[in-house]
Specification:
The chain is 42% helix and 24% strand. It is an alpha/beta fold. This is Response regulator transcription factor.
Length: 225
């Protein structure tokens, strides 16, 4: 059963949406603690998120940004904000669909069904800025082409994608490569990182791997300071 997470602060609307999707055969969960909404959504591991933009304490835009930075499930924005600039901003942040309230339930269900079909088969894909990585085969999809990465490079890139905007420690990287962090072979780790950096540069991946002194490494976009 597909799981849908609803992020809506208006109780009546939230209950109506819950009933619509439950009757349509979906598993439904609603977020009501909006201060920790991104974390709660990620922990739920949904198949789709239905997101309002006007929320107390946090913007739906911010939630959309955080979800799309760290996950691959679709986000459908359902909001009363009908300005073109709001729609374009949400889509630019990665939202997959944008619907305005009021919305007929038939249209809403059709858009949700369409999104879920589009995302079928992507369960093994990790999303980066402008590219996708298949975590089973380590195939990198970028600029309408696909490249199978060497196993160690794939393991390292997977680790960085799973910890977007975070520093990945040397121990974590060694455990990913060799299944242990008890003995860190810094030279061997450096060799593998250098190979991955070269591959990313040759493929035009718009990110770079930088050292974090005394801790590990972090994957950064080229515009980050």
């Amino acid at each position: 059963m597909k799981k849908i997470v609803i992020v809506e602060d208006e109780p009546f609307m939230r209950e109506e949406l819950e009933q619509i999707f439950q009757k349509a055969g979906y598993s439904v969960m609603s977020v009501t603690d909006f201060s920790h909404a991104p974390q709660e959504i990620m922990q739920a591991v949904p198949n789709l998120v239905l997101l309002d933009l006007n929320l107390p304490g946090i913007s739906g835009f911010q939630i959309c940004r955080e979800l799309k930075q760290k996950s691959t499930f679709p986000v459908l924005v359902l909001t009363s904000r009908d300005q073109m600039k709001d729609e374009l901003h949400a889509l630019d942040l990665g939202a997959d669909e944008y619907l305005t309230k009021p919305c007929r339930k038939e249209r809403l269900l059709a858009r949700v069904s369409n999104l879920l079909r589009r995302y079928e088969g992507r369960a093994n894909l990790l999303e980066g800025p402008g590219f996708l990585l298949d975590e089973q085969t380590y195939t990198l999809y970028i600029y309408d082409k696909s490249v199978i990465l060497p196993k160690n490079q794939g393991k390292l890139l997977e680790m960085f994608l799973r910890h977007r905007d975070e520093t990945v420690t040397r121990e974590m990287l060694c455990d990913a490569l060799w299944g242990t962090a008890e003995y860190i072979d810094e030279n061997a780790l450096q060799v593998n990182l250098t190979r991955l950096k070269k591959t990313m540069k040759n493929l035009g991946v718009g990110q770079r791997i930088e050292p974090v002194r005394g801790i590990g490494y972090r994957m950064m976009t080229d515009v980050e300071e």
